[in-house]
Each structure stands twice: as C-alpha cells, then as structure tokens.
Write the structure tokens for this entry.
Amino acid sequence: MRRTLAKPVTREGIGVHSGQLSRCTLHPAESHTGMVFTVGAVRLPAHFAHVSSSQQRTVLTSADGNTSVATIEHLLAACYGLGVDDVRIDLVGQEVPILDGSAASWCAALLEAGLREQTGVRAPLRTQAPLQVFDGQRWARLEPGDGLTLDITVDFPDPGIGAQRLNWTLTAQSFLEEIAPARTFGLFRDLDRLRAAGLGLGASLDNTVAYDQGRVLNPEGLRFPDEPVRHKALDVLGDLALLGAPLEGRLTMMRPGHALTGALMGQILAMTGA
C-alpha cells in the first residue's frame, strides 16, 4: 500500500544556505502523486529529472528555469525513511528550512500529521546486475538485494571526524532512532569560503555540527560518536527519494556526496527504464 499524510502540517525557519526565512506546509496527496513541491503556481515534482545543482545541497529547478527549490534532502529523507510516497509540499521561499540540521524535526512533523495508507502499489526499483560509478577517489556500487542496505565510508581531514564507516539496513524504526537525528556538519575553517560563494549564510551551531581541529564547537556535543557518517547516510536517502520509488539493493559508497549519488541514480534510472 502507498502512504500519504492524514492532515496538513507546517514548519518554518531559516535556510542553511540562503539565511532567509521560509515555510513548508505538507499536505496529503492522492495515490501516485509522488512527492511534489509547489511554489506559488508552479508545480515541481521531486524527481531526479529536475535536479539542477548538487553543490553542497540538492536543488530542483522548473523546466523554464524560473523556479528553484533548494536543500530538499533532509525533508525527502524523512519521507523516504518513514515510507511516505505521496505528499504535496507548499513552499513559501526558495529553500527548505534547515530546522535543527537533521531529519528528526521533519519526522516529528510527519508523525504529528499522521500517516495514512491508501490504494496503490509501492513498486520498488531493483537492478539485475551491479552498477558502479567513480569520481576520482569517490565511488558507489549498487548490488542486487532485498530491502535497502547502506555501507558508507567517509574520510575527512579533521581529526574529530577522520575515517568513519556505517553498515545499516533501512527500516522505519532504525531510521528514526539511528539516522534521522544526525545533523549536518562542517569544518569551521571552510565557513568563510562557503559564505564567499553565497552558501552557508544561515549556518549556526543551532543547525550545524562544527569541527575545528578535532574539537566539536557545539556546546551540547554530538548525538552519536559517528554522527557525520550517519548524516551522510541521511543525505543519500534524501537524494534516493528522487528516484520516485523505493530502491532495493546493497549500496556501498566511498566518500559520498550529492553529485556521486546523482551519477548513480542516473544509471539506475537508465537501467530500470523508470
């Protein structure tokens, strides 16, 4: 059975990159609507075909290039992790609010709205043979399998992060407990460079874990010892939501990022014809 919301729910806050206030209202949607953003009168399906940028975040842009929705991955990860197939997302602004930097607040919003099953089949995407993409020292490999298992490795130059590996199988409960609370993170030394590029303008210790030469600058510390690799898994799920159907298989990724996941999704869609 497909799943939507029982009633609308709204969240608002700043965008982590724009620094501007925005508001999202999530609405129930009919079966097979998929996940769709609306900005004013513009309807923008949350699908890989509409991805226009993968720099630091995932951005969707309308066919005429006049309407964009940025930093969609945490909200979509919450939908993916809780099995929400059909939802209309009304956005006032151009960037989804970052909230606390994780997917936990979006999960709370979805559970507040309530989840309702409806008619229609959740047909998963499966590959019959392994798929692999490379980008320098980054790579991703998808092998056939039941359900979805992520085997993710990150390696960052800051000693507070270093090399971390996560091997995790998706269920709604494990997502809520083990992945959704993991916050976005960054190196304090990169902040000026990001802001010079017009990014990270809304980043703060309220929504981002900041590392500085091995130290965590957030007074409350980490939610998990390996919070960065868990957040990378969250981002991967948010991008995979753009396939338009749940993915099944074993996905291994070395140093993942939005662009690498996008390259793999392009191959998945080409192979499955979705």
